Every structure is written in structure tokens, then in C-alpha cells.
Amino acid sequence: MPKGSTPPSRQTATLLAARCDQASRMPGNGMGRGAVRAAMALIAAVSLIALPGVCAQADSHFGPLSGKPRAVDGDTLEFGFKRVDLYGADSLERFQKCVIGGQSTACGADAWEAIVNLITKTPIQCEMKAINRYKRNMAICRNANGVDIGLQLISMGWAVARDDNMPAYTAAQQAAKAARKGAWAGKFIDPLKWRRGERLPEHAISIY
Questions:
Q1: Where are the alpha helices (DSSP H) in 26-161?
Q2: Among 85, 59, 92, CA closest to 149
């Protein structure tokens, strides 16, 4: 698609298809039904190409969710085609590494394993709180035992607290840090900085 062009919306594609169908019903239009069907198929294909990730994007208007989600990463849950990020808790990235006891460890994988274990107690209940810059819902999620998943990840040392309006999260992080739990037992890069490309010296890639 040319730069600066506006991709057609699904509603526009549907309208065009309807008009093609109406045109095929008009007498003497000179357009065969086979050509109309081909045009409608092309319109549908273009609408899907023009809207990448439409199935992966969460609806910005859905309400509370309940069910058995899968863990996409350490702080993202997926209920069917609806994704939510944990509100106030930023987990280590799935492929992130830490240095603990002088050894490089796959702490991102540990964080992902922790959330997988936390969501085994279903149904998981998620209450929407905000929309992040990726247009995904942010939610506080609890498992069937009533455990706040984001809070628990912070308490285990596999996520950092993000929201100043969540004093329980801030307190949990301070306690985890003092007890050297999870990633706090060694060195790690804040997940936000890690996503921006920052790495520990032990994991930096030299091009020289």
C-alpha cells in the first residue's frame, strides 16, 4: 500500500461488496455473476490485508472477562481473540536474561512460568482498568483462589510495579527487593528499558 494512503475499513469493504452484489442484480449491467463474486472476494482479501493484527487486537470496549486464558508472556493474557495486559505490573520479558550469583539466568522464562502456574486455577476474572498505548485493555486479574496475579508476580520478584495509584503493588515490590526474591536476587534491566534495547553488560552484543 502506498505511503500516506488510508487503509479501507472493514465497514467500507462490506459496503463495496454490497454495492457489487446490487449491481449484479440489475438487468443489462453487462457484469457476470462470476466477475462479481471474484470482485467481492478481492475486496474481502484487501480488507484483511489492510487491517493487520485485527484478530490479535483487543476490543477497546469489552467489559470484565472470565474464563481460561493462555499466557502470551509474563503479563499478557489472551481470552480467545481478546488480549489484556496486567494493570500496574510489568513483567520481565519472555526472552529476557538476568545475572544472579554471577551466572546468566533465563529470568524472563521464569516469569512466564510463574504466570502460567498462577492461571491454572480457573476461571480467571479480569476487571478492565485502562487502555495502554498499544490499544490493549489493562486489567486487574485474579484466579479462582482470589489471588491478584499482577500483585503476586511483583511479590515473587518477576514483575515491577508501574502504577503509583496501587500502593499495595509498590509495597510488594519493596518487600520483594528487600528479600531478594526472583530477579531482585541479582542484576536485571527494567523491562521497559529492555524493550527499548538496553542490556546488561554481560548480555551486550559487540559488533567489533
A1: 33-49, 107-118, 149-156
A2: 85
Low-confidence ranges of the chain (pLDDT < 70): 1-61, 205-208
Q: Residue 135, by phi and psi: left (phi above 0), alpha (psi -120 to 50) or beta?
A: left
How far does the chain reach from its first CA to its final CA, in angstroms?
38
For residue range 133-159, list pLDDT tens digits in order.
Answer: 878 899 999 999 999 999 999 999 999
Q: Is 172 helix (H, G, I), strand (E, B) or coil?
A: helix
What distance in Å separates the CA atoms of residue 85 and residue 140, rounded to the nearest whole number? 9
- Cα(144)–Cα(148) distance, integer angstroms: 10
Quote the CA–CA distance of 46 and 58 in Å, as a whole number: 21
**Torsional sign, CA 177, 182, 187, 192:** negative
Tell the residue number behind the cell numbers 533465563, with chain if given. Answer: 106
> Using CA atoms, how far apart are residues 58 and 136, in angstroms rounded to an integer?
5
